[in-house]
Structure to design on (158 residues):
Protein backbone atom coordinates (compact mmCIF):
# COMPACT_ATOMS: atom_id res chain seq x y z
CA UNK A 1 0.00 0.00 0.00
CA UNK A 2 1.28 3.43 -0.75
CA UNK A 3 2.11 6.02 1.81
CA UNK A 4 -0.42 8.50 0.30
CA UNK A 5 -3.32 6.07 0.75
CA UNK A 6 -2.39 5.45 4.39
CA UNK A 7 -2.28 9.15 5.28
CA UNK A 8 -5.59 9.88 3.47
CA UNK A 9 -7.71 7.65 5.72
CA UNK A 10 -6.68 9.13 9.12
CA UNK A 11 -6.92 12.65 7.68
CA UNK A 12 -10.45 11.99 6.42
CA UNK A 13 -11.43 10.55 9.77
CA UNK A 14 -10.12 13.60 11.63
CA UNK A 15 -11.93 15.95 9.21
CA UNK A 16 -15.22 14.08 9.72
CA UNK A 17 -14.92 14.25 13.52
CA UNK A 18 -14.19 17.99 13.38
CA UNK A 19 -17.19 18.56 11.05
CA UNK A 20 -19.59 16.66 13.34
CA UNK A 21 -18.21 18.49 16.36
CA UNK A 22 -18.80 21.85 14.70
CA UNK A 23 -22.35 20.90 13.73
CA UNK A 24 -23.08 19.74 17.29
CA UNK A 25 -21.88 23.04 18.75
CA UNK A 26 -24.48 25.01 16.88
CA UNK A 27 -25.79 27.77 19.13
CA UNK A 28 -29.44 28.74 19.11
CA UNK A 29 -30.39 32.11 17.73
CA UNK A 30 -32.29 34.60 19.88
CA UNK A 31 -35.48 33.80 17.96
CA UNK A 32 -35.17 30.05 18.68
CA UNK A 33 -34.55 30.66 22.39
CA UNK A 34 -37.57 32.97 22.70
CA UNK A 35 -40.11 30.38 21.54
CA UNK A 36 -42.06 29.46 24.63
CA UNK A 37 -45.28 27.50 24.67
CA UNK A 38 -48.16 29.74 25.68
CA UNK A 39 -50.50 28.51 28.45
CA UNK A 40 -54.03 27.51 27.52
CA UNK A 41 -56.44 30.24 28.58
CA UNK A 42 -58.93 29.10 31.20
CA UNK A 43 -62.45 30.39 31.36
CA UNK A 44 -64.23 30.86 34.65
CA UNK A 45 -67.30 28.59 34.69
CA UNK A 46 -70.53 30.50 34.78
CA UNK A 47 -73.46 29.24 36.88
CA UNK A 48 -76.16 27.53 34.87
CA UNK A 49 -79.79 27.80 35.81
CA UNK A 50 -81.02 24.47 37.17
CA UNK A 51 -84.16 23.15 35.58
CA UNK A 52 -86.58 21.43 37.88
CA UNK A 53 -87.19 17.95 36.52
CA UNK A 54 -90.74 17.41 35.44
CA UNK A 55 -92.48 14.35 36.81
CA UNK A 56 -92.61 11.47 34.35
CA UNK A 57 -95.88 11.00 32.58
CA UNK A 58 -97.97 8.21 34.04
CA UNK A 59 -97.78 5.27 31.69
CA UNK A 60 -100.79 3.10 30.94
CA UNK A 61 -100.77 -0.25 32.76
CA UNK A 62 -98.95 -2.99 30.85
CA UNK A 63 -100.85 -5.74 29.14
CA UNK A 64 -100.50 -9.38 30.20
CA UNK A 65 -98.46 -10.04 27.01
CA UNK A 66 -96.04 -7.19 27.84
CA UNK A 67 -95.62 -8.50 31.40
CA UNK A 68 -94.99 -12.03 30.08
CA UNK A 69 -92.37 -10.73 27.62
CA UNK A 70 -90.56 -8.70 30.32
CA UNK A 71 -90.77 -11.62 32.76
CA UNK A 72 -89.18 -14.04 30.25
CA UNK A 73 -86.52 -11.49 29.25
CA UNK A 74 -85.38 -11.04 32.87
CA UNK A 75 -85.91 -14.47 34.42
CA UNK A 76 -85.65 -16.79 31.43
CA UNK A 77 -86.82 -20.23 32.50
CA UNK A 78 -85.72 -19.93 36.18
CA UNK A 79 -89.15 -18.77 37.37
CA UNK A 80 -92.75 -19.41 36.43
CA UNK A 81 -95.64 -17.06 37.11
CA UNK A 82 -98.03 -18.13 39.85
CA UNK A 83 -101.26 -18.12 37.83
CA UNK A 84 -103.27 -19.03 40.96
CA UNK A 85 -102.66 -15.52 42.35
CA UNK A 86 -104.90 -12.67 41.33
CA UNK A 87 -103.50 -10.33 40.17
CA UNK A 88 -100.33 -11.99 38.97
CA UNK A 89 -98.47 -8.67 38.67
CA UNK A 90 -98.52 -5.17 40.13
CA UNK A 91 -97.00 -1.99 38.69
CA UNK A 92 -95.71 0.85 40.86
CA UNK A 93 -92.67 2.81 41.98
CA UNK A 94 -91.41 0.38 44.62
CA UNK A 95 -87.94 1.84 45.14
CA UNK A 96 -88.65 5.58 44.94
CA UNK A 97 -86.69 6.29 41.75
CA UNK A 98 -89.68 7.89 39.95
CA UNK A 99 -89.69 4.99 37.47
CA UNK A 100 -92.34 2.33 37.18
CA UNK A 101 -91.37 -1.07 38.53
CA UNK A 102 -93.00 -4.42 37.91
CA UNK A 103 -93.65 -7.00 40.63
CA UNK A 104 -94.71 -10.48 39.56
CA UNK A 105 -95.84 -13.29 41.85
CA UNK A 106 -93.72 -16.23 40.76
CA UNK A 107 -92.23 -19.56 41.86
CA UNK A 108 -88.96 -21.26 41.00
CA UNK A 109 -89.30 -23.56 38.01
CA UNK A 110 -88.74 -27.26 38.79
CA UNK A 111 -85.00 -27.90 39.17
CA UNK A 112 -84.11 -24.17 38.98
CA UNK A 113 -83.89 -23.28 42.69
CA UNK A 114 -80.08 -22.89 42.53
CA UNK A 115 -80.46 -20.48 39.59
CA UNK A 116 -83.00 -18.43 41.55
CA UNK A 117 -80.71 -18.21 44.61
CA UNK A 118 -77.54 -17.46 42.63
CA UNK A 119 -75.57 -14.47 43.90
CA UNK A 120 -75.15 -13.41 40.27
CA UNK A 121 -78.89 -13.33 39.65
CA UNK A 122 -80.17 -10.06 38.20
CA UNK A 123 -83.23 -9.75 40.43
CA UNK A 124 -84.32 -9.01 43.96
CA UNK A 125 -86.31 -11.55 45.93
CA UNK A 126 -88.65 -10.07 48.50
CA UNK A 127 -90.83 -11.75 51.08
CA UNK A 128 -94.30 -10.32 50.46
CA UNK A 129 -95.25 -10.85 54.12
CA UNK A 130 -92.45 -8.52 55.21
CA UNK A 131 -92.86 -5.82 52.57
CA UNK A 132 -92.85 -2.18 53.68
CA UNK A 133 -96.00 -0.22 52.99
CA UNK A 134 -95.60 3.58 53.21
CA UNK A 135 -98.05 5.56 55.33
CA UNK A 136 -101.14 6.76 53.46
CA UNK A 137 -100.77 10.22 51.98
CA UNK A 138 -96.94 10.22 52.00
CA UNK A 139 -95.29 10.51 48.60
CA UNK A 140 -91.67 10.29 49.75
CA UNK A 141 -90.61 7.92 52.51
CA UNK A 142 -87.02 7.02 53.46
CA UNK A 143 -86.78 3.36 54.40
CA UNK A 144 -83.62 1.83 55.88
CA UNK A 145 -82.25 -0.84 53.58
CA UNK A 146 -82.75 -4.39 54.81
CA UNK A 147 -79.47 -6.18 54.14
CA UNK A 148 -80.79 -9.67 54.83
CA UNK A 149 -81.11 -11.66 51.64
CA UNK A 150 -84.21 -13.79 51.16
CA UNK A 151 -83.32 -17.27 49.90
CA UNK A 152 -86.14 -19.59 48.91
CA UNK A 153 -85.35 -23.05 50.30
CA UNK A 154 -88.08 -25.26 48.96
CA UNK A 155 -90.65 -25.16 46.26
CA UNK A 156 -94.18 -24.67 47.53
CA UNK A 157 -96.86 -26.57 45.73
CA UNK A 158 -99.60 -24.43 44.14
Amino acid sequence: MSHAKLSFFPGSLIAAVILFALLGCHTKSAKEEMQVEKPIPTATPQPVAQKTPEPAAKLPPPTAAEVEAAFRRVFGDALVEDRAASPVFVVGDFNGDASQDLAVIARPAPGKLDDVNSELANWTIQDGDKAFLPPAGKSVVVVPKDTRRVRPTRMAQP
